[in-house]
Amino acid sequence: MLSQTLPKKPVDGMRALAAAHEIDRLRLSVAAAREVSFDWTLHDDRIVWDGDCEILSLHTDPNRLYRGDGLRRWMCAEAQAELTRLIETKAPSDRSFELEFEVSSALGTVVFEMRGARIARPDGQAERLSGIVRVITEKWRETTRLHYLATRDELTGHLNRTSLRTELARTIDTAKRENGSCAYLVTAIDRLAMINEAYGFGAADEVIVAVGERISRVLRSDDIIGRSAGNKLGIILNTCSEREIAIVADRLRACVRADLIPTQAGEVAVTISVGGVFLPHAAASSQEAMLRAEEALDRARAGGRDGFAAYAKSSQRETARLRLMTIADEVVKALKEKRLVFAYQPIVTAGEHLPVHYECLLRLRRTDGEVLSAGHFIPAVEQLGLVRLVDRCALEMTISQLRAQPCVSLAVNVSGTSARDPAWLESFVGYVRCHRDVAWRMIVELTETAALNDFEESARFVSNLRELGCTVAIDDFGAGYTSFRNLQMLHVDMVKIDGSYVKGLCTSPDNQIFVRTLVDLARNFHLKTVAEWVSSDEEGALLKSFGVDYFQGFHFGVPTLEPEFARAVPLHQGRESKARPGWQAMPGQTRPIAL
Question: Is the pTM here over 0.70, yes or no?
């Protein structure tokens, strides 16, 4: 009997020793990970802790944590409720759980993570909870910081546009579900560009921050504010009637204009304009609400500064909006299918009426073969933000045509919207640089107002193009407020006199004086002149007597999709350092059909 039982004792002892060592290793591992394990038996509400028990010292009375009731009281209300649900919910199988809770201590707010398993009895009631607890305050702070950066505007600290739209969608859904109402307002700081010019961009940023703070102070606690664009703030009004929208808008405008805003550059008088939309009555989604509030804001600003307008449904505006969307879809398809084409209109010499170059005028060829002029679609694509794509397409088409036709010089237009985008201008110059061997036969036309919108950027753009060999012209000259001194500083090569001053020139003494003055000044600054909309030989003769260099108009050549480039021969085979290209049409060239 003894011989049978003696061998078992050393084996049992070794197993017990190995198990003890395993428990010690586990305890050391948990402690090294700065975690504390727990085993909470629910029938007696007792908890056994092991591992890094120093964590428990963050409680003012750690002895209370050896009972479940004391642990629950230590947690925040949200974690208490979650833990109670975990314990009281019947579930026949074991399940894992994870929760976070905050506690206040002498060190400030401490965040804990509790992870473990719920062990069930056969009847589904919870028998015990076992797992680990660890401090995750630093991780929580970093996660909170990243969440803040992802959802907040860096300058103002308010919600960014994406988060504002998310909150607006949630508010609209709640209003629909509870048969309630809410509103969305968008405010814009009036004439911020003038503040930029007068005080500098730093002051403008201070104004944006100050306006946001003033608006925040007069909002209710459950209202939400965010920055929707550079000078615009969006406000979500919870539980708001349609009548209250105007009241709140008046309050916002009053709080902003009440006092001057102090900045490092001086005190600034500021006003805002407000557009509002009543929800969910006037818009079913957050995107639609934002668009309609912007539409109302446009009407508010049309009357001047410090205005307000609420969105009101209009069949006329809705029809116009649908038309814009239809045109935009058609232009996008035309871009993909390469159905944007050029109609070429010659610019001719004032003396012999011979073409020197051709202006590339965009046209859209529909699938049924109909050709639309730019006036049918350019305003829509500008309004909807597609014009940069169209302008880029026009540039690529121009370069392609210059390569295909070595004996032609072409002018391409840059829209005012694209001219205000520094990144787009840089990409334009970059594309021309890649094709600089044909750049000397390209004329780039900028409108007068676009050229002076950002003078320094425009001057850089012009300088870069001229270094690559391009000619630069100012289009619609005389329609804006450009001075010839600005033109000299821009170093353009040519000005195109706005056609409104040329039309009916022979019977308008005032226009004759104006055009003659423009031409004389241009000559003094060594700039070539082109008269637009020339419609008769009489107008041409008068313009020539004034000293105009070139004519453009239906009388001397209508835009056509099929110009006779193939028979054009260059006046100059070589290129001089500052010379611009000139071209002469072959005899017998017929006048094409106008488009």
Answer: no
